[in-house]
Design brief:
With about 230 residues, the chain is mostly helical. It is about 65% helix and about 5% strand. The chain contains 10 helices and 4 strands. It has a two-stranded antiparallel sheet. A two-stranded antiparallel ribbon has the order 2-3. Strand 2 and strand 3 form a beta hairpin. The protein is globular and about 65 Å long. The two termini are about 35 Å apart. The relative contact order is 0.08.
């Protein structure tokens, strides 16, 4: 459709359903659904940046790396409940094997990024940020192709790190983050934790300032991830 000149949006079903409710649309068939989706898409105001096929392919490889990391975490939990030395050696060998595979896959992704001059420059730029290692840089570049072409507020929302108000009249509700790209958010949160205590002076100062004002540890870390 993009090749034919159409602007394409990928909507969540909840967006279309909410639009239908607002307009009291109850009837449902294929033709009506098509009209409804088209009308809803026409009202959506969000970053409309063409996808990068190079990054879309690498996203599959990064998902595989993330699945390996989930397997490693499961093996580590299992290890906590195993006392038999032979079984422990087997589990530890599995963990070592998975770590080797993870490292190899990350190296392949980096090599693929560096075959393109623009992506290589973007990778080096992100790596220049104190506290951002190779794993986080890959997640940022692959999971957020809009990086550098959206506002900071839009970037925070895409990453699922934007705090949303919950106020009504005199009631001031607690702010919560919501939505966004979960895998990217987890990568940024994992990077913010050591960066806010050791590697990034700006984040160290931000964390100290927020906790001094009474912010909870996790809320301050989320703010650091958003800043990162």
């Amino acid at each position: 459709m993009r090749d034919k000149g159409f602007t394409v949006l990928v909507l969540q079903p909840i967006q279309v359903k909410a639009y239908a409710r607002v307009h009291l649309r109850r009837a449902k068939n294929d033709k009506l659904d098509a009209v409804l989706i088209a009308a809803c898409a026409a009202t959506i105001d969000q970053p409309r940046i063409e996808p990068d096929d190079r990054l879309a392919e690498l996203a599959h490889h990064l998902t595989f790396v993330e699945q390996i990391e989930e397997d490693i975490a499961r093996f580590k939990v299992r290890l906590e409940h195993i006392g038999d030395p032979r079984l422990r050696r087997m589990v530890m060998a599995d963990i070592a094997r998975l770590k080797t595979r993870r490292s190899a896959e990350l190296s392949r992704i980096v090599a693929a990024l560096r075959t393109h001059d623009d992506l290589a420059r973007r990778l080096d730029l992100v790596l220049s940020i104190p506290g951002v290692g190779e794993r986080t840089a890959i997640a940022l570049i692959v999971r957020m192709p809009e990086l550098g072409r959206v506002t900071r507020e839009e970037a925070a929302a895409l990453a699922g790190l934007a705090p949303y108000d919950d106020d009504s009249g005199k009631h001031k509700g607690q702010r919560h983050i919501a939505g966004g790209r979960g895998r990217l958010r987890r990568s940024l949160f994992a990077a913010a934790l050591p960066a806010a205590f050791r590697w990034n002076k700006a984040l160290i100062d931000l964390y100290a300032r927020l906790t001094a004002r009474g912010k909870a540890h996790k809320a301050a870390l989320i703010a650091c991830a958003r800043k990162l």
